[in-house]
Structures are given as C-alpha cells and as structure tokens.
Amino acid sequence: MGRPWFTALARAFSSAMTVLGAGCVLGLSLLTWNTWFAARPGIVLKPETHYDFIIVGAGTAGCVLAARLSEDPARSVLLLESGPEFGWLASVPLAAPLLQNTVSDWAFRTESQHASQLGLKNHSSAWPRGRGLGGSGQLNYMVHFPGVPSDFDRWEKEGAHGWGYETIRPIMERLTCERPHDLVPRNSSPRISYRILMTGDRLCLPQRTKKCVPKIRLAGGEPTSETLTSAFVDAGKELGGDSSKDQEWAEKGFRRSRSSIWKGRRWSTLESHLRPALGRDNLHVMLNTHVGRVVFSADLGPGTRRAEGVFLTSGAIVLARHEVIISAGAVGSPQLLLLSGLGPKQYLKQFEWIPFVADLPVGHNLHDHLNMPLYVSFSKPNLSLTLSKLRSIRQLGRYLFYKEGLLASTAVSAAAIWPSNLGILLFAMGTPEESVLGNIANYMPETFHGLFPLAKNSSQEGAVLLSSCLQPHSRGTVTLQDSNPLSVPLIDPRYLSEPKDVKCMAQAFKLAARVTKTRAFKRLGAKMHLPEFKHCGKPNLKDDAYLACAIRTSAITGYHPAGTCRMGSGRQSVLTPELLVRGVTGLRVVDSSVFPTPVSGTPNSVLIAVAERTANRLIIEYPTVKYDYFY
Ligand SMILES: Cc1cc2nc3c(=O)[nH]c(=O)nc-3n(C[C@H](O)[C@H](O)[C@H](O)COP(=O)(O)OP(=O)(O)OC[C@H]3O[C@@H](n4cnc5c(N)ncnc54)[C@H](O)[C@@H]3O)c2cc1C
Fold first, then answer.
1. Which of 140, 270, 336, 557 is the best mutation target for the ligand 1 pocket, counting ligand atoms within 8 Å of the beta carbon and taking the most?
2. Distance (Å, rounded) from C-alpha 135 to C-alpha 104?
3. Residue 95, CB half-sphere, CA atoms under 13 Å: how many?
4. What whole-number distance in Å separates Cα of residue 119 and Cα of residue 443?
5. From the CA of 265, how far away is ligand 1's center (Å)?
C-alpha cells in the first residue's frame, strides 16, 4: 500500500508485456497463416476430377511445361508436387549447400559402390534432389551451360531423331536472348562483349518480338574471384600450345562460368516460368501431393492401354483428357513408371501388387558425372571465398540490403571443356568447411583431410579444381525396394564400373594439375596439394595406380543423374523421340531421365530447352486456338 509508484510501475510493465506477448502471438499466427493456410494464387488443396494435362513433379522441367501449356486459357493443367514450397534461404545463391539434408531434399543415398566412393561412409554417395516447388532447380548450384553441338548430334545418332544441335540451338539462343553473331559487333573488345553477355538483358530481334526477355537470366562471377577467374582462362590459353586445334579448344573451352542468378537471387524455372503463370484460372498446383501410380484403361490387346490419369497416395484419382506427363526427375520418373507396371517384364514379376502393363527397360541406363577434387592453395591475398570472409557481418549486410556480395554468387567461377571429353569446374572456395562439405559429400573424416590439408585455416586462400569425365560409359540402375510408392527407390550408379572411365578421370585430373603449374597460376602463388590417402601410396601424378586409387576413393557425384527413361528408337529406349512412353498411349516423360547420353557439362539449361521444345510440340498437337508463331 505504501509504494504506489512501485505498483504503477509494475502495472505498466505488466501491460507492456501483455501487449508485447499479444503482438508476438499475432505475428506468429500471421506467419503461420501465411505459410500454411493463406490462399496463394493457383495453389489448390483439392483437385477437380478432370484436366487436359496432368504434370507430375514441379521441378526444372515440370515448371516449364505447366507454364507453357497453361498459356492458352482454354487448356486446363494440373501440376502435382510431392513436396512443399521452399523457404527464403533457397533464393540466396551461396546458401545452396545448406538446403541439403533438409525437408527440401529427398536426400537419397546410393547403394554401396564397389569400384568407387571408397572414401565415403558406407561407400555410398549422397544424392540430393529437390523436393518441393521448383524441384532440384531450387537447390542446384545454378551453373549455366548450353551444351555442345556433339551432345545433341550424339543423341540424334543414337535414335533420338529430331534432337540434333540445329533444332536445339535456336531454342537455347532465344531462352538466353543470345545470338552472339548477330548481336555482339565482331570488332568489339572482349571486355565489351563480356559486359553485354553478363547483363543478360540485351536486345535480340527474333521474328515478331520487339524485345527479347531472357528466360534463362545470367550473371557472371563475383569481383573477389575475378583475378582467379582470369588466371584460369589464361591458363587455358597457355595449355593450348601451338596446335591450332588445341588453341581453338582452349579459347572455347576455358571460360568464366555464368549462373542463373538474377538481381542477387536464384533464377530457376520456378521464377522464370511458373511464378508468372501462378494465378491463371486454368492452372492448378497441388503441393504435398505424392503420385502413387498412373491409372490405365482396360487391356484390350497390345498397345491399347491408355493413361487415363493418376492415383494419389491420399487415395484420390484425377483424370487427364489429353495426357499424363511425368516430370518427376531421373529417380522419381522411373520409380513411378515401375510402380505403374511399365518396366522389364521379368523384373516386375516379383511384385505381385503391380499389374504388368508394358515390357520396357525403365530404370536402366542411369548415368552421372563424377567430380574429382584437387585442392590448390594461393599465397596471394583476396582471390577466393574464405570462411572468415563469409562470416563477416558486412557480407550479410551487403546481401540483405543490396542483394550483392559473396552471398549473391555461387562459388563456381569458371569451367573448362577440353578434347577427349575432359572437364574442369573451378570452385573458388579457399577453405572448404568440413561440417558442410564433409557432410554433403558423405566423406569419411580421413578422406576430407587427405583432400583438404589446410582446411583448418579459415583465412587460407585457395580453390578446388573439380575434374570430370564428361562422357562416362558406366551405366547403373534405379529399381524398386518394394511396391510401396512412399518407399525410397534403390539407386546403383555403378560409378567407374567401366575401366575406361577411370582412365578418362585420370586424364581430367592430370589436366587440372597442369592448370596449377601454368604461369597464370604461378603468379598467384599456387601450390597444388595432391590427395593423400594411406592406402593409395605416395602421391605421384605419374603413377597410374595412385591416380586410380585416389579417384576411386574420393571422386563424388556431379549431381547430374539422367538417362533412366531414355528416348530413342529400338528396344533400348523407353520413350519415342517425341518422349511418349512406348506400348501405351497418353503418357509422356519430360525431365532429365530422357537424356540418352550425358550432357558434356551441367544439364539444367539443356533440360529447359528440351522442355520448351516439347511444350511447343504439345501446343501444336492439341490446338485450342490458332497460333501463328512458334520458335
Ligand atoms: C546439388 C545439386 C547441384 C546441381 N548443380 C547444377 C548446376 O550448377 N547446373 C546445372 O545445370 N545443373 C545442376 N544440377 C542438376 C539440375 O538441377 C537437375 O538436372 C535438374 O534440376 C533436374 O530437373 P528435373 O526436372 O529432371 O527433376 P527435378 O528438378 O528433380 O524435379 C522432380 C520433381 O518431381 C517431384 N516428384 C518426384 N516424385 C514425385 C511423385 N511421385 N509425385 C509428385 N511429385 C514427385 C520432386 O519432388 C521434384 O520436385 C544440380 C543438381 C543438384 C541436386
């Protein structure tokens, strides 16, 4: 009673706390509502009974198809995605590795390997795959590569008629708005052409379009890695030697890399294609919806079965008037076809719950790139991304306020393609962090330390050269664990099961080692650190046995699995060149599983072109209104 000022103060404090508490509760409720319940345009919780097209999987390819097919309001499209939406972190380019092993990642593990992955836990490779709106395009490293002519011509030769380079080139040029010969003046300096290429918004003049807005928007390297990137490009010229052919490759082959980043944010097909289409009345998107199998019409004789729709694991069935399109990725698509009774007849017999539909080599022909790391340290300062630079508040501020700085870049600052299918990626990462890289690569601790001896010094300048065989011959499989659609499939890439792949990887590794010895790299104070593994003996580049052992121990996935529903002609192919599943009607596959052989580099942009071309065909095949212009 005797201290009114104290009571008043206590009351004021209590009211303030109540207001603050209520504010917090309101804020949290709004956040939860916004994340989970608020109506977002185009996202539906319940499907209608019929759509013209049903697309399974909202990954790189699925987003392109859904957007393109719904351009015409008279065509209804349902896009089904097993996962949720990705969070904000996915838009921050350098944060990409942090999404692995989270809810946004299928986090597959391969079967234990016999000829490779020997320095990885359980000899098993970690295979991240995006799970959610945008798919793997939301957790990839965003490197853009338009493919080389021989990739597409090889596809055509292998029976994928109509997929030669001359077909793909105009699509790719339009996607990036790049027609170098038309647009960059022949006599302009390299610096000017580089600037034009990097801005990504220059004009090109396709028929009937005044301004070309690039779908694949591209950014260049970050300033910190500019010196290193230039040194890498110069190293390529040095290695070109006198032979004119080699010189041509050196100039074509060693390049600063370009990334699908726009205004400091990831620019996946979710942004370029799907996001602008969300909200169209004729496009429905369902999240957290897993497709269990394709529903077929009755069997009235060979080739008469038609894909009628899909069966969701929630128990619902949705029907398609025109087609069901599977875009569930190189692992998800073969799994879904096998669960639907499309696969090798003998193999499917063991699953009594799966009614057989058609005998096809589904799940075969799995191919992937392997990357072999070579660490190089530099004595000169300010060349690469180091952990101490990344941890600075300044970098965080630069990103949050201006969407620039190290966080707005990927660490991949340059790439090389060299004759005989050798490739190198330059990761301008001075100090790989064990808890991140060790974890995502599934390395045993001794493998990590054998590769990166200076990793403890968080200010050490350096880079990782990832060498690769761009056209590996080893082929693996994706098969079923059981007939439950929610079970994880069995992935066996059989890396390095073909001895010529080991030889090719060793050549690529030697090329990376040669890069570190060039004058351009020496000027940076480069020191190469050959991997040291006790069981491989003394590091020696001339010792083939050492090289093979180091590669079999520490080369890791390049994250490019493909080929499991290959297109082509003949019995080896699952799909026709039009990507229709053989033996049935009304069913198509469009994603990285269709590639008959690997792309000689990173595949995402090539896949976008494949999906665009297929959308063009579908629009012609199922016309609703008259279109007078296609590219
Ligand atoms: C870590 C990483 C880094 C990479 N870096 C690069 C790079 O720098 N440059 C590059 O070019 N490429 C890169 N890639 C490869 C590239 O991202 C992929 O090749 C490409 O995204 C594959 O697209 P997709 O459409 O075939 O499949 P995805 O994008 O994987 O889409 C498949 C979608 O289907 C969904 N799904 C699967 N099963 C079902 C089902 N039953 N029901 C409903 N939905 C289902 C999945 O959740 C997923 O969203 C990288 C990949 C990874 C994983």
1. 140
2. 9
3. 16
4. 6
5. 18
396-408 per-residue burial string, b: 16 or more CB within 10 A, e: under 16 = eebbeeebebbbb
- Which atom of ligand 1 lies nearest, measured to the CA of 606? 11
Separation of CA 549 and ligand 1 centre (Å): 31
What is the DSSP track for 194-234? HHHHHH-------TT-SS---SS--B---GGGHHHHHHHHH
**Looking at residue 463, what is its pLDDT?**
97
**Using CA atoms, how far apart are residues 631 and 176, in angstroms rounded to an integer?**
13
Given a contact cutoff of 8 angstroms between Cβ atoms, the answer to whether 442 and 124 are in contact is yes
As beta bridge partners, residue 120 has 443
Q: Which of 604, 607, 608 is the pocket-test mutation for ligand 1 (most atoms within 8 Å of CB)?
A: 604
Q: Which of 457, 463, 450, 458 is nearest to 516 (CA)?
A: 463
Pocket of ligand 1 (CB under 6 A): 56-62, 80-83, 128-131, 135-137, 139-143, 145, 290-291, 327-330, 332, 336, 559-560, 591-592, 602-605, 607
Question: By alpha-carbon position, which residue is closest to atom 24 of ligand 1?
Answer: 329
What is the 99 CA–ligand 1 centroid distance (Å)? Answer: 13
DSSP state of 565: T
Q: Residue 454 Cα, ligand 1 centroid: separation in angstroms?
A: 33
> In this structure, are strands 556-557 and 370-378 parallel, antiparallel, or unpaired?
antiparallel
d(CA 72, CA 322): 15
- In the reported structure, the alpha carbon of residue 136 is separated from the centroid of ligand 1 by a whole-number distance in angstroms of 3
Using an 8 Å Cβ cutoff, are 493 and 476 in contact? yes
Looking at ligand 1, which residue's alpha carbon is closest to its atom 35? 57
User: Which of 133, 436, 559 to mutate for ligand 1's pocket (most ligand atoms within 8 Å of CB)?
Assistant: 559
What are the start-end ranges of the H helices in 72-207?
149-157, 165-176, 180-183, 190-199
pTM of the model: 0.90
Residue minimizing CA distance to atom 49 of ligand 1: 135
**52 CA to middle of ligand 1, Å?**
24
The residues, ordered by sequence, that sit 6+ positions from 456 with a Cβ below 8 Å of its Cβ are none
Higher pLDDT, 2 or 123: 123
Nearest alpha carbon to residue 330 among 611, 617, 136: 136
Helices (H), 219-328: 226-239, 244-253, 269, 275-277
Q: What is the pLDDT of residues 284-309, one digit of tens each?
A: 999 999 999 999 998 877 778 999 99
Backbone angles phi, psi at 612, to 5 degrees: -60, -45
In tens, the pLDDT along 159-210 reads 999 999 999 999 998 898 876 544 434 344 433 333 333 333 233 333 334 5
Contact assessment for residue 373 and residue 465, using Cβ atoms and an 8 Å cutoff: yes
* CA 319 to ligand 1 center in whole angstroms: 25
Cα(532) to ligand 1 centroid in Å equals: 33
